[in-house]
């Protein structure tokens, strides 16, 4: 992590004192920051460079437009990201607090998630117990239900790096080993955490609406951008794009339960083929002790045909989500 001394100062961002860097991407840096006015306390600020290299022209000096073309183009999608986030209000979605800009940068001020990425928690714990996985995935699903059913928005980039959390004071530190890996006499050494009664890991929040899209006008209940004469493929498009989030939800649930993703290959080409065919397995021994009900749910999400894939309502009504919810409420 960067030391305080190395943190940049941005003209136009005097209201905030940057405290530490929390994430960095190709075009953006995210900082934890303190509000000097005291209104928000702490927040996360995503600083995005306004201009990107004009990739349509690149450095191709042979291109006829090379001399005329601007070297850089202004990023348009960042404004869309902000516009979409502005419409959203849900406990499991990172809130947009403020938006600002100067000549060179956009500043997206976001509700701070001090727990950071869910991704790091999977790495730390190697995998999540079924209770903890349910506790996490149900919250993600509640956010998706809101996005798909109420807001008419698809996220399109659901993955552990974009799932952040607000931690409870008590965070689990270890997992029970799968039965197949436990020594007889050390059988309960790894025992931990019901997860849910204690508040689990905390409040999960979906972040990063950089690839999100409005697909349905929730006011008029019509597909976006069309007035009448809506073609069937537009209506289908809307349904298919929701199912993209459901596939990703399945990948996240799979990963939570066993600690590795359903599709992996060192060659991108092979990986792409595996995904296209929906080629995954519940790999032994890692999946041996995971309930058939959890596997059933995962398989209804990792279904290649988007028409047969579970939608958010079916997901939330699955026995693995519902029954155990009652069980854990009783146990709490
Ligand atoms: P990118 O489009 O570059 O992926 P993100 O919005 O996903 O941008 O932010 C990048 C990273 O910054 C996240 O993966 C996370 O680690 C961190 N981050 C983003 N927003 C927050 C936040 N509100 N609270 C804490 N960390 C955040
Ligand atoms: Mg991201």
From TrEMBL:
Keywords: Kinase, Transferase. It comes from the Eukaryota. Residues 16-321 form the Protein kinase domain. One of its GO terms (molecular function) is protein kinase activity. This is Calcium/calmodulin-dependent protein kinase-like protein. It comes from Tothia fuscella. The lineage of its organism: Eukaryota, Fungi, Dikarya, Ascomycota, Pezizomycotina.
